[in-house]
Amino acid sequence: MTQEKLFEQVAQAIYQRVQDGVYVSSQKLPSEYDLAEEFQVSRLTVRRAISELIKRNVLIKQKGKGTYILPQEKIQSGSKGLQGFTEVAKEQGKAPDTQVVLFEKKANIPNHIAKELELNYGDYVYHIIRIRSLDNEPMTMENLYIKECFMRNISEESASHSLFDQIEENISIAYSNQEIEALLATDELAERLTVSTGSALLKVNSVVYSITSVPIMYDESYYRGDKYTFKNILYRNSH
């Protein structure tokens, strides 16, 4: 194995530990000597790996003290109202990418979703599963059910683009009701989001509505806990 490949592997291993929470924000990284012993490589290889991660804003070196884990910036969802993934990505100057895992039109869907969408017998929906990435890094997996009447011209190819834009060619989106829960990544979710099994995720179930409170889309999404926070404003009821 070449020296080039070795330093890249060590850098990736350290980065993965940061993503998985093995190394946490502001924690001091083990010494070059200890890392070299652990990975069975030279200290020069470790030094190159650390330099690469410093360039990527994963680590920071403090003179006379050592190398530390930089706090990782998270995407704040909800801070500017109801926005699509593509809109948030553009605001942050990041390149969004979408992989369509499943695209199908169907009438037979889980009862609780049909109820949320207020479907009648025989109504069709588009069932779409997508992996959303920023700068080539998977961020979230979306499991979507969209009423067919609001997406008549959609195709598998266009499903990789902004669905909000396509929906709003037919009806205006007004608001969304969300339920958020914390969970641990299963083997399948870990593989989809390139994290370790058992990593922290946020599961968000939401229903998107029109101005006249017509349900448009049911969204069951899984967000990486190391990359996302959710911000909400809560109002106290008058007594």
TrEMBL record:
Domain HTH gntR-type, residue spans: 4-72
InterPro entries in the cross-refs: Bact_HTH_transcr_reg (IPR050679), Chorismate_lyase_/UTRA_dom_sf (IPR028978), Tscrpt_reg_HTH_GntR (IPR000524), UTRA (IPR011663), WH-like_DNA-bd_sf (IPR036388), WH_DNA-bd_sf (IPR036390)
Matching Pfam families: GntR, UTRA
Residues in coiled coil: none
UniProt-recorded name of the protein: GntR family transcriptional regulator
This protein's UniProt keywords: DNA-binding, Transcription, Transcription regulation
GO biological process: negative regulation of DNA-templated transcription
Top-level taxon of origin: Bacteria
Single GO MF descriptor: DNA binding
Protein's organism: Vagococcus humatus
